[in-house]
Design a protein that fits this description.
Elements (H helix, E strand, L loop, with lengths): L4 E4 L14 H12 L3 E5 L8 H7 L4 E4 L4 E4 L5 E4 L4 H13 L3 E5 L4 E3 L7 H9 L5 E2 L12 E5 L2 H11 L7 E6 L2 E5 L5 H12 L6 E5 L5 H6 L2 E4 L5 H6 L2 E2 L7 H10 L2
Helix pairs in contact: 1-9
């Protein structure tokens, strides 16, 4: 067996555009797991709405969540590692989003908070339901009892482009990245999928060349370039394909199944 650790992005990669996991892809992942390879979901989602996919497939191990900001044990729900943000530095961003009337959520490893759950617009509520996660009402920052690991802004792409351009000049800097067409994430400067995958590989005694990663968006680039073999989905932006070693079929055409069949089961 060449690849001992296989990292799979979730949305746009593992799941099709209807947020569904196909039977064929699930069976192929199970077959690869039976060869002894360790499967880890590496996603912008939190543990609460990514661990259920591991359980659906019948896998144990880990999820790398919040784009690398928190790694969690699937069975025990233990936080193996997290990158905590500077709470004091968060406030100006929250004020800015409110001033711009841009919806945002604040995430600890296991919980998500917004300003007013009841007052959310229908399209925003629908977005959370699609991702199997409904937020809680946000307490004052000083009352958070757990580290904050990610802030996500949700808006149209051109609005996020402007926000990214403006806030990227601020100090202290966070890791600011696009995790989807309508999402902009802020995290600890060291938090990334690639960094978290590197730490997990070292923890498991797995060499870099024994790691395979599959993803489809800009937040996946660090793990695609870290892995011994990085595979981009056909539905990826061109910059993501350029960062990968190979390109597989799209998420609607079982690209994960195709890649695992070719590189892990042939």
């Amino acid at each position: 067996m060449k690849y001992k650790l296989i990292a799979l992005d979730v949305d746009g990669t593992l799941l099709n555009d209807n947020h569904e996991l196909s039977e064929q892809t699930m069976k192929t992942i199970q077959e690869v797991s039976r060869t002894g390879a360790e499967i880890v979901l590496c996603t912008g989602r939190g543990p609460q709405n990514s661990i259920p996919f591991m359980e659906q497939i019948g896998l144990t191990g880990y999820v790398i969540s919040h784009n690398g900001a928190a790694t969690v044990d699937v069975e025990t729900k233990e936080i193996v590692h997290q990158f905590a943000m500077d709470t004091k530095a968060i406030q100006p961003y929250m004020d800015y989003f409110r001033e711009k009337r841009v919806h945002f959520d604040v995430n600890t490893a296991f919980n998500m908070y917004v300003d007013n759950v009841e007052g959310m617009a229908a399209e925003i509520r629908s977005m959370y339901e699609n991702y199997l996660m409904l937020p809680l009402d946000m307490p004052p920052l000083q009352e958070f009892s757990e580290p904050i690991v990610k802030i996500t802004a949700f808006a149209y792409a051109d609005v996020l482009d402007q926000i990214y351009e403006e806030t990227s000049k601020w100090t202290p800097k966070f890791n600011s990245l696009r995790s989807g067409e309508y999402f902009l994430d802020l995290m600890h400067p060291d938090a990334s999928k690639g960094n978290a995958l590197k730490q997990l590989a070292e923890r498991r005694g797995i060499r870099q060349e024994e790691v395979l990663a599959i993803g489809n968006y800009f937040n996946d680039i660090t793990m695609l370039t870290f892995a011994g073999l990085g595979i981009a989905m056909d539905n990826s932006p061109q910059e993501v394909k350029a960062a990968a070693n190979e390109v597989t079929a799209s998420n609607n055409d079982d690209g994960v199944h195709e890649a695992l069949l070719k590189y892990c089961l042939s």
